[in-house]
Each structure stands twice: as C-alpha cells, then as structure tokens.
Write a structure and sequence with these properties.
By secondary structure, the chain is mainly α. Helices cover 48% and strands 8% of the residues. The radius of gyration is 26 Å and the shape is globular.
C-alpha cells in the first residue's frame, strides 16, 4: 500500500455539511486538523460539502464560518478566502464529479444501476426476512450493453455504483490504530452518483481530497467503516493514498455517542449561552487527549491548573502519541468549570466587553424591547418580564407547568413531542405556530394547554411576553436546550421519588 511522501507539504481539511447549526464535533475535528497543520507549517483547508440538497440549509454555511472564526480556527483556503484548488463548495464542482464517474464507468470499476426505489425496498425486505445483512443485490452489475443503451434511450433514471470486488479484502493503515482489514463481502456496492446528478459523500470526498492535495485525512472514527470504500476508489483512479487518522468520538456521560438529546451540540448554543471561545477550545483540546500528562510537580500544585491552556500552547505541546482512543466524555460540568476559570481571569473591562458581546449585546436588547414595551408601566419593570432571557437555569414547579386534568407522565411525553417538532421546524413564528398546533390536534391537547406548557418551560412562568416571538429572540439552540434540560430534570426527579 502506498502512502503520501513524508516530504510532501502537509495539507489537511475539514468538510462540514451546511445542514443546520454547526456541530461541536466539527469544531473538535477542526481543532485537531488546525493544530496538526500549524505544528508542521502546513495548510488548513475548509471545504463545504453541500451535495445533500434535501437537507441543505441556506444560512448554515455562514454560521459555520462565523463560529469557527469565533473559536480562532482560521483556514488558509476555503469558499470565502479562495485558494489554488477551488471551488471549495462541492455544489460548484458537479462537473468534476461527473467526469470522474465517467472515468470509473469506462475502466469497469463502476456501473449504472437502474433499479427503482420499490425494487430496492423489496430486495431489502427479502434479505431481512432471510436474516441476511441488507445490501444491494447486484441486479444491474452485469447488465448487457444493449440493455444499458435501451434504458438510457428510454431516459430511465439511474445511479452510478462502485463495483466492489466479490472476494478478497482491503487493508488500510490508520495512523492511530495500525492496519485495519475489511472483507469485501462486507462492503456494499456504494452509490457514487445519485440520479439527480449530485455525488454521494464517498465519491466527492475522495475526488476532492485528491485534487486538493490533502496529505492527511483526520476525521472522526465513525468513518472507519467507509474508509475501505475510499481506498478502493483511490485504487480505481490510480491515485496515491493519503494518511488516515480517525479520532475517537465525543461521548455523553453514559458513553453513548454525543447527541443533542443529552448534550447541546450546536456551536451557536455555546456562543449565545455565554461560553468564552478560549474556554471551549481549551475543553475540546482536552477531548483530543493530545496534551501531555501533568508532571508530578504539577499534580502536587493542583492537576486542574494543567488543564488550562491556550490555542497557542496547544500548538506548542500537542503530541499525537498522547491521543487516547477511548471515547472522550463531553462533560458539561467540566466545561462550565473551565469557562468559570476563564471568566474569573478577565479584567473588569474585558468582562464587561464579554457581557456586551453576548447576553447584553445591543442587538439582543433591541429584539427584546418591543416584546414588553406595551406591557410595562415603568422602565424598572423591564426585568420583571424579561428575566428568563438572561437566566441560565429555569425550573418551573408542577403548579406552573402541569395542566389541569393532565398527569405528569402524559405531560412529559407531550413535551418530548414538542421538542421533536421544534427541532425539525424553521425558527420563525410563521413556521412554529402551525407545527405546534398540528401536534396539539394530533395528540388531543388544546392550544391553551400546548402553548402554556411551552411558556412555563421556557420562561418559568405563566406570564411572559408573546411566546413565539420570545422563542425567536431567545434562539433555537438555547430554547431547545432549555426544553431538553427540563425533561432531563423532571425524569431525574421522578426517579428520585420512586
């Protein structure tokens, strides 16, 4: 197996998808790539993987730019700064992918698949009934040329699939784990080009990494199972392999993969909630495990002090051999402690500036003011109606949130349904109101019960400025986190009462 020459200039990348709020995992992997490049005088590339048009969110790309820059992870090449290997948005590279897919068709390492969704679903059900792993059965793998021509002439939709060898295995080296082998019998004939003309992640990823001269692919370990497909594609094109590094996944306290159900995963949340970027970067650096262990002297003086370091210190001291493969725990309690240390270290002017840039910003106050202007008699009453906008913890009592004639269990079940609906809804009054009303109709909850419950969870009171307008101002990330924390707290209280 060939690898990139050690003399090649180091080039790494992160490639987030603009499908919603930027994920904390993007910052975690971005930090490791950033450090790796800066330590070696290399290039850090930002690529936007926006070929999944069904999940594309127009505002997400700018949020990615803003939050990564907020954290200090500035890129050398990317959609907004340019570079010699652009364009850096995959949606602007579709012709490049078509040309490469045609190359694979010509050399026999890919084929057109004309199977319909119904045919694929029927085959999947048969495999499941037979207790076989569901995978593409190879129906179109050996279609005669005349059949292919007839289907093309009839404008029959098709995808392009990778032709995985039927026997043998693929071995690649993971720089953190050593050699990893996958039997070809476990690898599906992956779709490379969809019927809409857009590539899947696998083709676009390999083509872009090669054309952008990426020397080291540093990504999360969830992509290990995809790597043999990528290695096969590199071989099909006759290209040299990059080095592969698969970082351990961030974990919840219970060791499950970090998820929005158990932790805030939106970088927008951490920024709006008043976490300092230096603290969050410090915390994510601890997650990677690449920092040296404290010396005996440091432990005597207090091990926690050795956990506080700047991005510049990470670049100076981070070492690959120190990376721990066990899933690092994303412990919000520890992050809050770190953030408190950074806050206490600020001078008075810097602290005031930090407040003014987040929860006391002019924009935030301007959005809140119209919501209460018609509801107060003196300016001194401003805090009476708006306190929930500035508080971190809201814990309404059952007397406040529990509707009459509803049990606690069914109320919490309905709250979970509200959370699911809100997660999938655009954060506007026009989108939230019908979505919540529809949920209420389906579950037999009146509009009053429905909205009063949500009002109590968000504000801690049955009296507040207009609910949906308040949600818009408070923001989706913080609102959803407040609902999740309410559910988590109530479940803990219920368990304690048992």
């Amino acid at each position: 197996m060939t690898t990139t020459s050690t003399e090649a200039p180091i080039r790494v990348r992160i490639a987030p998808s603009p499908t919603g709020d930027p994920h904390v995992g993007t910052a975690y992997i971005g930090l490791i790539n950033f450090i790796y490049a800066r330590q070696r005088g290399g290039t850090f590339v930002l690529r936007i993987e926006d070929t999944d048009r069904t999940r594309f969110v127009p505002t997400s790309e700018q949020m990615i730019f803003d939050t990564l820059r907020w954290l200090g992870l500035n890129w050398d090449e990317g959609p907004d700064v340019g570079g010699p290997h652009g364009p850096y948005r995959q949606s602007e590279r579709t012709e490049i992918y078509r040309q490469h897919a045609d190359f694979l068709l010509a050399n026999g390492t890919a084929y057109r698949c004309f199977c319909t969704a119904e045919e694929l679903d029927a085959a999947r059900k048969q495999q499941i009934a037979a207790k076989l792993p569901p995978r593409y059965p190879g129906t179109c793998r050996h279609l005669p040329a005349e059949q292919i021509e007839a289907d093309l002439a009839a404008n029959k939709p098709f995808v392009i699939r990778m032709s995985v060898p039927t026997d043998g295995a693929t071995t690649f080296r993971d720089e953190l784990r050593g050699d990893i082998t996958f039997e070809h019998s476990t690898i599906d004939d992956q779709v490379l080009m969809k019927s809409d003309g857009f590539p899947t992640y696998h083709l676009a990823n390999v083509v872009d990494d090669h054309l952008m001269q990426i020397t080291d692919v540093i990504r999360a370990e969830e992509w290990i199972s995809s790597t043999p497909k990528h290695v096969l594609l590199y071989k099909a094109f006759g290209w040299q392999l990059p080095r592969f590094w698969h970082m351990p996944l961030l974990r919840n306290i219970d060791k499950s993969k970090i998820s929005k159900r158990k932790n805030p995963v939106s970088l927008i949340y951490y920024r709006q909630a008043g976490f300092l970027p230096e603290a969050l970067i410090n915390f994510l650096g601890l997650m990677g495990g690449g920092m040296p262990s404290p010396t005996p002297i440091e432990i005597v003086n207090g091990a926690k002090e050795t956990e506080i370091f700047s991005l510049a210190e990470m670049i100076q001291r981070f070492e690959v051999p120190n990376i721990r493969l066990g899933g690092p725990v994303f412990d919000l309690t520890k992050l809050r402690w770190l953030n408190s240390e950074y806050i206490r270290a600020l001078g008075p002017d810097a602290f005031y500036t930090a407040l003014r840039s987040t929860i006391l910003s002019d924009n935030y106050l301007r959005e809140i003011a119209p919501l209460i202007q018609q509801r107060i008699e003196t300016l001194g009453q401003f805090g009476d109606l708006t306190g929930f906008f500035f508080r971190d913890d809201i814990l309404p009592t059952q007397e406040v949130f529990l509707p009459k004639k509803r049990t606690l269990e069914e109320t919490l079940d309905f709250t979970a349904e509200q959370l699911t609906v809100l997660e999938a809804t655009d954060w506007t009054h026009e989108a939230m109101e019908p979505a919540l009303k529809k949920l209420g109709e389906e579950k037999g909850w009146s509009v009053k019960e429905n909205f009063m419950l949500l009002r109590a969870i968000i504000t801690g009171s049955t009296m507040s400025p207009p609910l949906l307008e308040s949600l818009v101002v408070f923001g989706k990330a913080r609102s959803l986190d407040r609902v999740r924390r309410f559910l988590d707290t109530q479940k803990k209280l219920a368990n304690a009462r048992k």
